[in-house]
Amino acid sequence: MGSGTQSAQELSAQTDCIFCKIIAGDFNTDFVYQDDYVVAFDDISPQKPVHTLIVPRQHVVNLEDNPDPELLARLFSAASKVAAIKGVAGTGYRIVQNNGKGAGQTVFHLHVHLLGGDPFTENIV
Ligand code: AMP
Ligand code: ZN
After folding, report:
1. Half-sphere CA count of 38, side-chain side, radius 13 A
2. What is the 3-state secondary structure (H, E, C) of 58-72?
3. Which of 17, 107, 113 to mutate to test the pocket of ligand 1 (most atoms within 8 A of CB)?
4. What is the average pLDDT across 34-56?
5. Which of 45, 75, 98, 112 should be mutated for ligand 1, with most atoms under 8 A from CB?
6. What predicted TM-score, i.e. pTM, was given to this entire model?
7. What span, in angstroms and rounded, lies between the C-alpha atoms of 87 and 21?
8. Predicted local confidence at residue 7, as pLDDT
9. Minimal CA–CA distance to 93: which of 79, 104, 105?
10. pLDDT, tens only, 59-117
11. By alpha-carbon position, which residue is closest to atom 20 of ligand 1?
12. In whole angstroms, how far apart are CA 28 and each of 36, 106, 118?
């Protein structure tokens, strides 16, 4: 174990992970929402009028990294709160979550994308 002064979240932070750095406050990112387990911030390259990322504070790579089911529930629960905060609750929004390079994952710290704000014209599922 560590020195006893670091939280589990700090111990799990990866020095080369951009989302761990954002969570640590290194870039003074505005958090749309935060609680003890997750933070949410707007995507730097929005694909919709509303495009917000919901990210666990704990560094987990993706669904193949055995995330705690409770943490996954917290991510989805936070996503619905973020939808309300961003004004898209009730208008139709999407949650997207990429697992692995082959699916387009580019940041290897688990996150869900909340997308909305105008109509979806294409369905991939
Ligand atoms: P994914 O492709 O599912 O891994 O999604 C990663 C997302 O993170 C992309 O939509 C990027 O635009 C976004 N992103 C990368 N760096 C930052 C950053 N510094 N701040 C906000 N969003 C970011
Ligand atoms: Zn990370």
Report:
1. 25
2. CCCCCHHHCCCHHHH
3. 107
4. 98
5. 45
6. 0.92
7. 27
8. 53
9. 79
10. 999 999 999 999 999 999 999 999 999 999 999 999 999 999 999 999 999 999 999 99
11. 44
12. 18, 22, 29
Cβ of residue 107 lying under 6 Å from some atom of ligand 1: yes
**Residue 122 near residue 53 (C-beta atoms within 8 A):** no
Q: What is the pLDDT of residue 4?
A: 42
Q: What angle do CA 46, 47, 48 make, to 5 degrees?
A: 95
CA of 125 to the centre of ligand 2 (A): 29
* Minimum-distance ligand 1 atom for the alpha carbon of 107: 4
pLDDT confidence of residue 79: 98
The answer to whether the CB of 121 is under 6 A from ligand 1 is no
Residue 8 is classified by DSSP as H
Q: Read off the tokens for 58.
A: 């704990």
Nearest to 51 by CA among 102, 113, 110, 108: 113
Q: What 3-state class would DSSP assign to 52? A: strand
Active centre residues (catalytic) = 111
Q: Amino acid identity, residue 122?
A: E
